[in-house]
Design brief:
single chain; about 130 residues; alpha/beta; Nucleotidyltransferase, domain 5; 6-stranded mixed β-sheet; 3 helices; 6 strands; globular
């Protein structure tokens, strides 16, 4: 399975981006038998686009073979289009405070702590200024 995660970089660490479409990067992570390895980190060329950003981001991740995404939230259009393409979506718990590292997010997935999303989750307070 290939996981996609929208991420930001701070120093030498990667953190889950609070905004799916505006994330400057995406990490592609391979999961095998509860072990994982980061395959690559790709730049999101659609991060600064105002109109049509969602379609470009969806094409970006699906063209890389992403089967599932770990996100903090996602709007209706992106959620619907990704589900139509067979991509599974997992949300991090809303109760988590602060930034979530890439490793923490993947570990929660591997340990079965993230449930598959059944609908969009938009929280504009999570991404003010993004």
């Amino acid at each position: 399975m290939i996981l996609g995660l929208p991420i930001i970089k701070a120093g030498e660490k990667y953190y889950l981006s609070p905004h799916f479409g505006r994330a400057p990067y995406f990490a592609l992570v391979e999961i095998n038998d509860n072990e994982y390895k980061v395959l690559e980190v790709i730049k999101n060329p659609h991060a600064k686009h105002e109109h049509g950003r969602g379609a470009g981001v969806i094409d970006l991740v699906t063209s890389r073979g992403v089967n599932a995404l770990i996100v903090q939230g996602m709007g209706y259009n992106a959620f619907t289009r990704l589900k139509e393409r067979g991509v599974r979506i997992y949300y991090t718990p809303e109760t988590l405070e602060g930034l979530i590292t890439l490793e923490e997010a993947v570990r929660m997935f591997v340990e079965g702590k993230l449930g598959e999303a059944v609908g969009p989750r938009e929280s504009h307070s999570r991404h003010k200024g993004w």
